UniProtKB/TrEMBL annotation:
Keywords from the named record: Repeat, TPR repeat
Organism expressing this protein natively: Paenirhodobacter ferrireducens
Lineage, uppermost ranks: Bacteria, Pseudomonadati, Pseudomonadota, Alphaproteobacteria, Rhodobacterales
Full protein name: Tetratricopeptide repeat protein
TPR repeat spans: 44-77, 78-111, 112-145
PROSITE patterns hit by this protein: PROKAR_LIPOPROTEIN, TPR
PANTHER family: LIPOPOLYSACCHARIDE ASSEMBLY PROTEIN B (PTHR45586:SF1), TPR REPEAT-CONTAINING PROTEIN PA4667 (PTHR45586)
Length: 272
């Protein structure tokens, strides 16, 4: 998960970090027992596929419109309600997203994709304790669920429970040792817990992946700022962020650093 600067919105960061957390999720999923409950007619399934494609390219308004059509036709389709919840959540319509996901959960109480998405929705609204409850429910069904493990680690870091977060990341990395989001979140957790050197060492390794460089550079900028290396932090953001935004972000990081040096929890300041 990448940290945020003051110019970024919560939904942008959570969506990029959790939905892209490969969000660890593929669009559409399996309900209890490995099949979709009430999948509906072939016409509904085709509508869902088109909606999935719209969601995948970021056309959330069109995706929501199509999922709305799908649930109207097949109200027992878990996949349609799940997709609708994701589309609403991506556009900041949190109440509607909660209602759609609640409908999916009612149809399939043990569906891990639904439970994880409910966790992501709570985290995007800055409710990490509620998110944690959903991730734990998902892990009670499937202890190897990568999305739930990733989300749980982020929620714990949000709560400044960094030791617990790192235990979760280690558990997840034992199962998925090359997963980039897990490695990135694990490195950031080290920084937030005061082990800046180890966090930066891990980030430097991840920076070798050119396709993921921007996320790592954002986290390294925070690490450098917390370590008092403001010039390095500025250099790390240059090229990715406009100069005015860099100045605002560094000013915000100076405020965080005061609490950091005082030994105060800063998770909520980084992820808010």
């Amino acid at each position: 998960m990448s940290c945020r600067g003051p110019a970024e919105g919560t939904s942008t960061v959570i969506r990029n970090a959790l939905l892209t957390v490969t969000l660890c999720l593929a669009v559409g999923g399996c309900a209890d027992g490995g099949f979709s409950i009430g999948a509906g007619s072939s016409s509904t399934r085709n509508t869902e596929k088109v909606a999935d494609a719209a969601l995948g390219v970021g056309d959330y308004t069109e995706a929501a419109r199509l999922y709305e059509r799908a649930v109207a036709t097949s109200p027992r389709s878990v996949d349609a309600w799940l997709g609708l919840g994701r589309a609403y959540g991506a556009t900041g319509q949190f109440i509607r997203a909660q209602n759609a996901l609640a409908a999916a959960q009612k149809l399939a109480p043990r569906n891990t994709e639904v439970l994880v998405e409910l966790g992501h929705l709570q985290l995007s609204q800055m409710h990490p304790r509620d998110a944690l409850a959903y991730y734990d429910k998902a892990l009670a069904v499937d202890g190897r669920n990568k999305a739930a493990l990733t989300g749980k680690g982020v929620a714990l870091d949000y709560l400044s429970r960094h030791g617990e977060a790192q235990q979760v990341y280690q558990q997840a990395l034992a199962l998925y040792p090359t997963d980039f989001p897990l490695l990135s979140d694990y490195a950031l957790s080290h920084v937030l817990s005061g082990n800046i050197g180890e966090g930066i060492r891990l980030m430097e390794q991840l920076l070798r992946d050119p396709t993921k460089g921007r996320t790592v550079r954002a986290n390294m900028a925070l690490a450098y700022a917390l370590d008092g290396r403001e010039a390095d932090a500025r250099a790390m953001m240059s090229g990715d962020v406009a100069p005015d935004e860099i100045n605002r972000t560094l000013a915000y990081y100076r405020q965080i650093r005061k609490d950091y040096l005082a030994g105060k929890p800063i998770g909520y300041l980084v992820f808010r």
